[in-house]
Amino acid sequence: MTTDTIFGVSSPQSQDTLSKILQFGNRRLVNPASIAKYQLTRSEFQSGKADINSTTRPASQANKRRILSSTSFVSTWHPPEFVIDGIFQKRYLYTLTGPTGTGKTAIAQRLALHVALGWQLDQHAIEQGRVLYFAGENPDDIKTRWKALNEELGLDERAVPVDWIEGAFKLTEREVGDLVREAELAGQRYSLVIVDTVQAYFPGDDSNNNEQMKDYSQTLRRLLSLPGGPAVVALAHPNKKGDQSVPYGGGSLLNDIDANAYLSKKDGRITLAAHSKWRGPPFDPIAFSLTVFDTPKLRDTKQRPIRSVIARVVSAGVHDTTRKLLAALQAQPEATLAQLAEAIGLIEPTKSAATSKVDRALKSLETKGLLRKEGKRWVLTEKGVESFSGEKPFDTKTKGEEDV
């Protein structure tokens, strides 16, 4: 089908313009109806005067009032609505800054999973909601990590309500407009949007240029207009020099976002904390561990298990939970994994997720020398008895946690 049969376009300029529009739309697989956003009339196409780069305000907005009364101004106010209670709010734009090796993607995927399933994050309640994830930096690696994380938790990733945008591209106002319309047409509402990363979708040619970064931050803010009014968390590399908690990209990015969280690494632990640029209630830092996970089901082309990196939440009550597990084993040496999960009050969305978590915990305690396996029974070692009684502190570092 030619452009002439679509719009009756005959001039070369109009054909070239239409070609650009169709190429633009196809790149994101946007519904063809979204082309109407350009408000291009038949006469504009036929005269060759259509300009897809025009930024002229539509006539309907030309006389829009800028000065509002106090009543009008507060009429659109929304009470704070947290996606992750006490941390990320809907309709807020955040950066999550961290240097290489702090697990930005692994932790972002963990956040996405908890929001999509409504799982509590450490001490923070979560309202379940759909997630949109921009997989800009190495989508193949992101796919592997996502499948590994779901496999470790006994989940089918196809049933987890997370939508994806694959690959890096220049994120512009028009791209965001198309995404908003696509979500509206699909009837999807989002609680959380993760952009991985700020740098992957930067549309300019100099990320240190304050004007370019300011325009880009406003484009990122437009993602808040997606149906559902999501919180937008954009992963960011830090400044190349100086403060590693500040996102790279000139002062404009830090100035224009609502808040910045940052990741730091110490003694094999990753800590998520609020930066001094933080609008919202303060929160206690959350600890994560990065664990190398050999997937039992995922295989490479030579049928070898695939090794991936996943993030685990290090609960503030990890020692109490360990003591509960040791106590349950001492009381019921032949207890099943399900019985142990019930005994320590472990709550997970599925039975398999709970038993899988207990199984990992037992193997971890065996690695630390607190337990040993005798047949089908787990038995406390002398070190385990001492730890259980509180005579010796727990060693919280787990085998398999590496500096990644």
TrEMBL record:
<keyword id="KW-0238">DNA-binding</keyword>
<dbReference type="InterPro" id="IPR036388">
    <property type="entry name" value="WH-like_DNA-bd_sf"/>
</dbReference>
<dbReference type="Pfam" id="PF13481">
    <property type="entry name" value="AAA_25"/>
</dbReference>
<dbReference type="InterPro" id="IPR036390">
    <property type="entry name" value="WH_DNA-bd_sf"/>
</dbReference>
<dbReference type="InterPro" id="IPR027417">
    <property type="entry name" value="P-loop_NTPase"/>
</dbReference>
<dbReference type="GO" id="GO:0003677">
    <property type="term" value="F:DNA binding"/>
</dbReference>
<dbReference type="InterPro" id="IPR003593">
    <property type="entry name" value="AAA+_ATPase"/>
</dbReference>
<protein>
    <submittedName>
        <fullName>AAA family ATPase</fullName>
    </submittedName>
</protein>
<feature type="domain" description="AAA+ ATPase">
    <location>
        <begin position="90"/>
        <end position="267"/>
    </location>
</feature>
